[in-house]
Amino acid sequence: MITALANWHREANINPHLAASRAADIAKVVQFLPPGMLDIYQFQVSGTAPNIEVIALSAPPTGGADTSDLTAKGVEVELVYNPTSNWRILANVAKQETVRSGILPVTRKFAEDVVPLLAALGDRPFKNYPVDHQLGQPLPAEIQTVRQYYEQSLYTPMAADLATEGVASPEQRKWRVNLVTNYRFTRSGKLKGFSIGGGIRWQSKFAMGFPSSRLPNTAAVYDIKHPYYAPADLNVDASIGYSRKIWSDRIDWKIQLNGTNLYKDRDLIPVTAQPWGQVAIMRLAPERRFFLTNTFSF
Predict the structure, then answer these.
(1) Three-point CA angle 85, 89, 90, nearest 5°
(2) Residue 150: helix, strand or coil by DSSP?
(3) What would the mean pLDDT of 83-106 be, rounded to a whole number?
(4) What pLDDT score was predicted for residue 156?
(5) Rounded CA gap, 209 and 280, in Å?
(6) What distances in angstroms separate CA 285 from CA 171, 187, 235, one per listed residue?
(7) Is there a contact between 236 and 266 (Cβ–Cβ < 8 Å)?
(8) For 216-254, how does the pLDDT look when each residue is reduced to its tens digit (9 = 90+)?
(9) Does position 31 have pLDDT exceeding 80, yes or no?
(10) Which helix (H) or strand (E) holds 211?
(11) What count of other Cβ atoms lies within 10 Å of the Cβ of residue 240?
(12) How far, in Å, CA of 171 to CA of 274, rounded?
């Protein structure tokens, strides 16, 4: 409400005939605010109409945030198998789930406390009335009210967070599977000393958003049982190397060319979705990379 207070103090500059009405609104907000809140924002009003000036921090001092509890559980299984002395296969499977609880306790308390204030001032413009507006006239559709501001900035985001309380975090990929293999050629012949390897990294789909609707009282409701899913992710790696002894067999030398992300399902990976299912945010898939390494062991 600090931003609204600043706007309302300036109302007398724009609409002098509404100054008294705004002063009454300001008094209700000041009575609602916790003691010392205006001092935290360094809120100052100076001058007289039509030159009233308001100075205030656009945000409180940084470092404050609401909290939630996270309980993470998972299991990981790793298996190593050597079909032959030269061939090595490693498989890794992991499952993880994170459950949120106790979400936004301070925000929830504030959302409850602000209800009486919204009942009294919810239909007021969050910024200023249009020039020459008369009380009792309907507000233009483009004018955002206090209630609309709080719906957008407080209640709707809070409802999205609270909808996930007590259930496994949908944004987390539940399953991850890695398969890595390597084969070394040790028998005499043209391939002696060479090695080849490959890897597959797979991650399961994850929920990137939920369908939403509104109750008759306009409260937002999220359907967490039917989320919008981002597709599973698959990446492939490969390597080829050569090793031999050098310097009168006193040093083991190995050179290896590695390629990562050689195969990708897509170049853009969906991250979040709008309530109607359209992708809202995407990120770039990991880029294809090649790097050469030299190793000397002695």
Answers:
(1) 135
(2) helix
(3) 94
(4) 85
(5) 9
(6) 17, 40, 10
(7) no
(8) 766 778 888 888 999 999 999 999 999 999 998 899 999
(9) yes
(10) none
(11) 14
(12) 14
pLDDT for 232 equals 93
Q: Where are the domains of the chain?
A: 65-99+174-298
Global pTM exceeds 0.85: no
Span 73-94, mean pLDDT?
96
**C-alpha dist (Å) from residue 106 to 102, 103, 175, 187:** 10, 9, 33, 69
Strands 206-209 and 175-184, bridge-based pairing: unpaired
Residue that has been written with the tokens 């991650």 in this structure: 203
**264 Cβ contact list (under 8 Å, min separation 6):** 234, 235, 285, 286, 288
Query: Is the backbone peptide bond immediately before 50 cis, with ω within 30 degrees of 0?
Result: yes
> Per-residue pLDDT averaged across 177-194, rounded?
93
Nearest to 5 by CA among 35, 48, 44, 47: 44
Report the distance separating Cα 55 and Cα 73, nearest Å.
49
Which segments of 38-136 are extended strands (E)?
44-46, 53-55, 69-84, 87-101
Determine the Cα–Cα distance for residues 111 and 92; give it in Å rounded to an integer.
Answer: 45
